[in-house]
Sequence to fold (186 residues):
Amino acid sequence: MERTGGFLRRSLRFTVCIAGAGWILAAGSFMLCAAAASKGSGESKSQVESILTGKKTWKEWQTQTDWDSYSAETYRPSRDKLKKIGRLAQARKARFLVFAGSWCKDSEAHLPALMKVLNRAGISARDVELYGVDGNLTEPSGTARLHGIVTVPTILILSGEDELGRVVERPSASWEEDILEILSRK
Fold:
């Protein structure tokens, strides 16, 4: 009996340790992105000045940041899913609010693929609002604060003023699968 109890206690400690490590990694990722945006993080003055804030078009974003790539060349979204996204987005009169940090490596890694999906699904540029946020996750219009943005990138999918769902930082399956799942909700 004592041996079983000891095993269970060790298993529980191990599980708590693993769960705690996951939270630490998630918090560390956020802190790294936030630190990258601060002036004291070791960037040159030009990098700090290139932090984009406010509402931008994808074309403006591409011309005003110095990311390595904007094309997501290796990301191959499913054509069938893109067609479904286009149809559902039109039927639901969906709007897409995208919050990103020009200073954040997660935004740099994921935003091009997201924008590729929206573009190839036929989502009109007028239905996509891209907001650049600073290291405090704020931007001039207050839209990020209004929607409770706590990490970037974050995409909100709205129908009218109702939020259908959001994808925070990275998709759980793929951009097109996560967006399709949100648009398919009743």
Summary: The chain is about 50% helix and 15% strand. The first strand starts at residue 54 and ends at 56. Residues 2-37 form the longest helix (36 residues). The radius of gyration is 19 Å.
